[in-house]
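User: Just a sanity check before I run the rest of the batch. Below are the structure tokens for the first item. I only need the designed sequence back.
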């Protein structure tokens, strides 16, 4: 499984010159804990988290952001993303296509993966969904699904 399959798309970003009051409003209104920061060329140059807002002083995103963030490509295996989140104690990892932000993978995205796997007992086909599908797309069996907790990245 790849990062592109579980990432959150349409990520809200701010620029380096965004006032921290605006950043705080975005985090509060959207109920998110961090936002990527775009540089003048559109590339991601940092991240402003709720912790950054509480622990650093400044007037703009540039002043309080964590620079030099760790990112992954959309083709990165989920297991590698999980490893980064755990070993580096990160809460989220931006997903890039070249220098362009295409998504973000959070701990929550990976945890949600644990609940999304349904196995067709007729043919063994795995389906990702919040609830059991009505019909298997491969063999057309109905009511023959079991929920299986699968380790992310497998």
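Assistant: Here's the designed sequence for the first item:
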């Amino acid at each position: 499984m790849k990062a592109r399959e579980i990432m959150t798309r349409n990520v809200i970003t701010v620029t380096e010159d965004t006032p921290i009051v605006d950043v705080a409003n975005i985090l509060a209104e959207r109920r998110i804990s961090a936002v990527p920061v775009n540089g003048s060329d559109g590339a991601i140059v940092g991240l402003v988290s709720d912790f950054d807002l509480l622990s650093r002083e400044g007037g703009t995103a540039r002043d309080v952001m964590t620079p030099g963030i760790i990112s992954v490509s959309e083709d990165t295996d989920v297991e590698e993303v999980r490893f980064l989140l755990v070993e580096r104690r990160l809460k989220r990892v931006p997903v890039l296509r070249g220098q362009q932000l295409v998504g973000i993978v959070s701990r929550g995205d990976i945890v949600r993966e644990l609940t999304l796997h349904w196995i067709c007992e007729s043919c063994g086909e795995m389906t990702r969904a919040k609830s059991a599908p009505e019909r298997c797309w491969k063999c057309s069996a109905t009511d023959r699904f079991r929920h299986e907790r699968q380790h992310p990245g497998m």
